[in-house]
Design brief:
Length: 378
């Protein structure tokens, strides 16, 4: 039999596949725990569940799954246009916002080009660049774990086509606010497409949050990526969207697969966009439980980042993967960050108060056993 590794493209040899948070079903199989006794705080899903309006629409549409979806997502684009004041021709809908990251790479990068991003941001920017064979230029975060926009500007070269900025940054939860984004956009070269990944947009309440759509309307080459997976609770349906120029939309349409967004996802997303009550409740839960985590981390003597998202980044002072494994055996799933070069940190989704208390209780037992944090030797 022919060795398929020999047949595969050379660039794939250096690529480590994306590893998502473990699903509850997998942990139940591996550890032998009742699924009902497992809590997942690893993938930044909404602990309140999906939008009730989306669920109602899904139930009404389930008998239509024998039909192909609307390939142009006409009604969903119209709903997004009305909600955000962007022309339908400037909207791209995809199988999760991560597909848009891939499509941007396919449409605009070649092996002779480069992309610039942060070394400790969403790992798919790097993976997409490497799949294509482009040069991936990664800049370090600032000392307070924010994306360093000045460093990104300095890293841009003549062959740079794309800049990816996660805002809020995943996995640290930090953010670049209005004034610094304004300074960055004033200085970014015209030949570069700036992609703002705003997956956690709905959780941001800061009045200094940058309006990325403003730059689009001013004629700049900007893409604003958003998703229905987080605040709207539709992660399992895989649907995201982006706002950009009609010219960029046209390029993306040439490299996407037909029917890339399924029928039920389109229907549920359109209904969820009207569910402002669900988004409000989701945001209020996160705002309240953020403060709970801050208090508990300070009590436990742990360093953390104040977050603009629905997760918290915490430095443990010991091997984060080991802590992840120990929590896993207690039925608590968090996200180790070794792949992001944060070997002593984990990312924790903000869950319900009951879930968060359980996480803290189990984490404290580990810290006490390992003699770190407040239990460290003085």
């Amino acid at each position: 039999m022919t060795d398929v590794h020999f047949l595969a493209r050379d660039v794939l040899k250096d690529i480590r596949p994306y590893i998502p948070g473990k699903p509850i079903e997998e942990v139940a199989r591996e550890i032998g725990i009742d699924p009902d006794d497992i809590i997942k705080l690893a993938s930044n899903e909404n602990p309140l569940g999906p939008s009730p309006k989306a669920v109602k629409a899904l139930k009404e549409a389930i008998d239509e799954v024998n039909l192909y979806p609307d390939d142009g997502a006409y009604y969903l684009k119209r709903k997004l246009s009305e909600k955000f004041g962007v022309d339908p021709e400037q909207i791209m809908v995809a199988n999760g916002s991560v597909e848009l990251i891939q499509l941007l790479g396919l449409a605009f990068l070649s092996p002779n080009d480069s992309l610039v991003t942060s070394a400790q941001s969403f790992i798919m920017y790097r993976i997409v660049g490497k799949i294509i064979g482009a040069e991936v230029i990664e800049t370090p975060l600032t000392q307070d774990y924010k994306v360093d926009l000045d460093a990104i500007l300095k890293a841009i070269k003549k062959n740079t086509k794309l800049v990816f900025i996660s805002n809020p940054n995943n996995p640290t939860g930090t953010a670049n606010l209005k004034d610094e984004v304004e300074r960055f956009m004033e200085r970014v070269p015209e030949h570069v497409i700036v992609v703002w990944d705003e997956a956690y947009y709905e959780y941001v309440a800061d009045g200094d949050w940058p309006d990325t759509i403003k730059y689009l309307k001013s004629g700049m080459n900007v893409v604003a990526l958003r998703t229905m997976s987080k605040a709207y609770g539709l992660a399992g349906l895989r649907i995201g969207y982006g706002f950009t120029t009609p010219e960029i939309v046209s390029a993306l349409m040439k490299v996407r697969l037909p029917f890339n967004v399924n029928r039920l996802a389109q229907i549920a997303a359109a209904a969820a966009l009207d569910d402002e009550e669900h988004v409000r409740r989701s945001r209020e839960l996160v705002e309240k439980e953020r403060e709970f985590f801050y208090r508990e981390f300070e009590r436990l003597g742990l360093k953390y980042c104040k977050t603009y998202a629905n997760f918290v980044f915490v430095e443990l002072g010991i091997d984060g993967y080991e802590v992840y494994e120990q929590l896993l055996h207690k039925g608590v799933i968090v996200r180790p960050l070794r792949a992001y070069n944060f070997p002593t940190a984990v990312r924790i989704t903000i869950g319900t108060h009951e879930q968060n208390v359980r996480l803290i209780n189990e984490l404290e037992k580990i810290l006490k056993e390992k003699k770190v944090g407040i239990y460290g030797t003085s």
